[in-house]
Amino acid sequence: MGALVIAGWGTVRGVSGSVAGARWRRGEVLGWLGKRLILAANRDEFYHRPSKSADFWDSSNEILSGLDMEEGKEGGTWLGISKKGKIAALTNYMQPKIDKNAKGRGALVTNFLTTDLDSYSYLKKVALEGHLYNGFNLIAADLNTTKGDVICYYGNKGGPEPIFLNPGVYGLSNSLLDTPWKKLQYGKQLFTDVIKHCWELTKEDLVQELIKVMNNQEPQLPDPAIEDQGKEYILPILNKYAAVCVRCPDYGTRTNTVILIDAEGGVTFTERTMLNADIDQWKTSTYQFKLQV
Prior knowledge:
single chain; seven-stranded antiparallel β-sheet; six-stranded antiparallel β-sheet; globular; alpha+beta; Penicillin V Acylase, Chain A; Transport and golgi organization 2 homolog
């Protein structure tokens, strides 16, 4: 699974603020009141791979995510959030050859959303078993209105330990965190440009502007870093793969997700997902709720 995740959280000089009604005040950008999160993500996958659109898992309305329904991988996911303030996002690490007998990576997200472990402790545990999986990157967060927010990252093709992420803007594709792939750098630039002007937008318009960013199909070439990592595997689709939004005949961006979380724990989760493996059919769903922490 290819993917692109761009997130901003915490205080960024000159761009923190607070929510006022349906509009954003001037200066309100990453992490209103100096905390919280704006996340925009793409899921790139084969169009015919069976999946469920984002929804709460059961009647408790506790955990929200899309779900992979591929045989043998059922119940895994690429991105999810719980009302207890847990968020996780997964991308695969692009490698020319994969081990078909490796453990399913989607369970790394679902297990975090259901565990009592904090994000750093969970990623430390995952790091001990990282060799059992094909390449992956995992962002895990604990958002707590009273105790403060913690966001961590671990990639099993990088360093041996998870790292804490300081407030800022981060990008993650199919290499290590903030690897300077041109499409990732371009996506972060577009993301930041939208965020800088979000005081002019309603929340709904901000979501739509971020979805527009995640559907940019301009290839960012040449990019020797992608070619070197992907080898002969990536060359046939390089022109399509080197864009924020990947659009190949049978594979590409099939889900856009935007998550906004404000200082009071208010969550807006919007998913735009492809229907029937048809690039002309899409469904958009929005969920709004408050974190219970």
